[in-house]
Amino acid sequence: MAIHLHKHDIPAGLDFGDAVAVDTETQGLSLVRDKLCLVQLSSGDGDAHLVQMDRDKYDCPNLKALMANPDVEKIFHFARFDVAIMQRDLGVDCTPLFCTKIASGLTRTYTDAHGLKALCKELLGIDLSKQQQSSDWASETLSPAQQEYAASDVLYLHQLRRVFIGRLLRENRMDVARACFDFLPTRTTLDRLGWDGIDIFSHSFRSNN
Question: What is the pLDDT at residue 31?
Fold first, then answer.
């Protein structure tokens, strides 16, 4: 495994093929308060590219072009948060996309453990460390442990996607999965507008707005 650390953008011409694994690190989990600090990418070849963002202006034309490229599928785990952050800070919708957490929810109905660590352990036999999950991602210098943790969040998403495509096809749920993936940019727009904890499809929902 090689980890490539980039400042503010990916190099021009960097090719991830037709599918790129993507994850983000932020200062926290608030869509109102916390800024995008790091974007992790992998083509599934065992290497990871980490992009430390310029949080003052997010001037990253190459990264934005990749995220908006309709010919490249973006693979996330819990895409709902990552897509919302990229909508807000980069101004792009990351489509088309595949979310391994949604795919897990649609196929692993025998459990409520749908975190990335649980998926990698059960489906790939890989035990991920989450020790650096809560750390200072806004730091100017990322420690080797932080870099390894960030890389691990994208290194296995291509493998998980292959497993879940097989399961979705087996259960005849690929169409509903695709519909969920396609709806995510709208769902994340609702999140950013304040409907994050409200099911507007419910017969009787209450809004605080």
Answer: 86
